[in-house]
Each structure stands twice: as structure tokens, then as C-alpha cells.
Amino acid sequence: MAYFAAVLEAGAELAGDFEPDVSGVDGTVCRERAAAGRALLEPGEFRVDGRGFDLLFERLVALTKEHRGLFGEELDLPSLPEGGNGWSRELLSGLVGAEPDLSEALERAGGDPQLTAFLGAQALMPFLVANAWALRGLVEAASWNSGRCPVCGGAPVMARLEAEVGGRFLQCSLCLTEWSYKRLGCPACGIEDQERLRFFTDEKDETYRVDVCDACKAYLKTVDERKVDGEVCLPVDHLATIHLDLVAEREGYHRLGGGVPAGA
Ligand SMILES: [Zn+2]
Ligand SMILES: [Zn+2]
After folding, report:
1. Which ligand is nearest to the CA of 212?
2. Which ligand lies nearest to the CA atom of residue 198 in the structure?
3. How far is the CA of 30 from the centre of ligand 2 (A)?
4. How many CA atoms lie within 13 A of 106 on its CB side?
5. Counting ligands in written order, which one lies closest to the CA of residue 152?
6. Overall average pLDDT of the 109-113 stretch
7. Range from 204-218, 225-239, 247-261 that averages highest in pLDDT
8. How far away, in angstroms, is 235 Cα from ligand 1 center?
9. How far apart are CA 190 and CA 137, in angstroms?
10. Among all ligands shown, which has an atom nearest to the Cα of 189?
11. What percent of the chain has pLDDT over 70?
12. Span from the CA of 192 to the centroid of ligand 2 (angstroms)
């Protein structure tokens, strides 16, 4: 956990103060997209401080090297692609879109693809969070009801069941926007078939459960706020429950968003 804490701290320190200029964003276009079920911004429209991204990515690579003991002997680190200008955009469009795009972006940086994707997403996150915050007035997160983030189109990192009404909310693995989603339904393929949607819980801690879909084999971890005393912070809960990801993956299910490198 010390490694993950250091990763989150580096993001806050190097990019936490970023304030994107969103004055050029056209609210009418955004509303039309939202009405059509599409994300508010296309990957190329996010304001990202390119130099800040580069610095953060390099810091995260250095941090990973310092914690190399976690990853075993064969730590294969990425490096920022030459003339990296624009790599953050390529990466983002891969992370929210098609798999071939993501593989290409990851290949350009080298390293273990899973690790590169994790470090890249973490280096983008503070910038994407700042964009989402600046545009929050345009997002209809309470009635979104899609499996993908209303702001960036990213996949959810985790879900929470709220304590009072029992509503279900998903949180984006990339920009941390939270939106509502139907209680029974797979965010990956959309089915609502009770027979093929089930969950298992952590035997030692029923606060967490893993919702799985037997139609598309996706899974999503969920925190049940009715069983929690303190505050819920899904990105932190996600990192604290990696053992559940291992169980789900062993059972043949695949994660939606928020991948972490093997071994960490
Ligand atoms: Zn998002
Ligand atoms: Zn499904």
C-alpha cells in the first residue's frame, strides 16, 4: 500500500493544482452528446498540461523503480516516448476506446503493458479529474444510467451501494466522476437477467462484494455503504481490495477499469 499511497501523493503534488481552461467547451454540443448517450468530451478535447503529464509520468516510473521489490525480478519499465507530445492523448483515447489504440499507445512507451497502462492512467488522472470538476455543471450524472463515464467514457473502477435509498453508483477509473446506474444490470453488456448476474462477498469482510456477469464475464467490485462506519473513497477501497480482483480473475472474469500491475 505504501507504493499506491506514494503514487497518489505524487499526482496530488505535481498536478493537483491544475486548473484547465474550459472556456472553449461548447455546452450545446456537450448536451447533444449527453442526450445521445455519449461522453461529454472526446479524448482530444480534454485540457491536459503536457509538460505536467510528462513530469508526473516520469516521477511515477521512478517511484515504481524504487519499489521494485514488489514486482519481482523482471520489472519492465516504460519510458516516455520520444517527442512524447501527444502521447497522453493517444493513451487517453486508447483507455476510453478501442483496444488496438491502447495497445499501440502502450507499445510506444514500452515496458510491461499492464504496468504502463496503470502508470499512464495515474499520470492522466489529476488532469482528467480537474476537467471533470470544471465541467460538472454540464453532467447529468444522477440520470446517466450507462456503464461508461458521462464525462470521458472511461470504465468504472468500482461501485457503491448507498446506505439510505440503496441506489447504486459507479465511479470512473480515469476522471473519478460518479454516476448512477441501475441496481440490477451489468455495466459492461447491459443485461438485466437475474439468472446470469450474481455476486460473491469477501468472507472476512462483507463490506465488499464482487458483482459478476456470466453473460460477458465482466466483474465489478462494490462497497456496501450500509456495512461501513467511516467514509467511503472508492479509488482507495479499490486499492485495498486487490485480493478480490485476484479471486475474480482466477474465476475467469475480467475487470472493467482501474487495472493495477501484477505483483503490486
Ligand atoms: Zn471519466
Ligand atoms: Zn455483462
Report:
1. 2
2. 2
3. 28
4. 20
5. 1
6. 94
7. 204-218
8. 13
9. 27
10. 2
11. 97
12. 9
Question: Is the sign of the CA dihedral 39, 40, 45, 46 positive or negative?
Answer: negative
Task: Give me 202's grid cell.
Answer: 469477501
Compute, in angstroms, the gap from residue 205 CA to the centroid of ligand 1. 28
Whether 85 shows a pLDDT value over 70: the answer reads no
Dihedral through CA 17, CA 5, CA 124, CA 39, nearest 10? Answer: -100
pLDDT, mean over the chain: 90
The rounded distance, in Å, linking the Cα atoms of 17 and 125 is 13
- Residue with C-alpha cell 475474480? 248
Q: pLDDT tens for residues 136-161?
A: 888 877 788 899 999 999 999 999 99
CA of 152 relative to ligand 1 center, distance in Å: 4
Q: What is the pLDDT of residues 42-57, one digit of tens each?
A: 888 999 999 999 999 9
Interatomic CA distance for residues 258 and 122, integer angstroms:
9
Span from the CA of 88 to the centroid of ligand 2 (angstroms): 29
Cβ–Cβ contacts within 10 Å for residue 211, how many?
Answer: 21
Q: Name residue, grid cell 503493458.
A: 113
How far is ligand 2, taken at its centre, from the CA of residue 224, in Å? 20
pTM value is 0.91
**CA 236 to centroid of ligand 1, rounded, Å:** 17
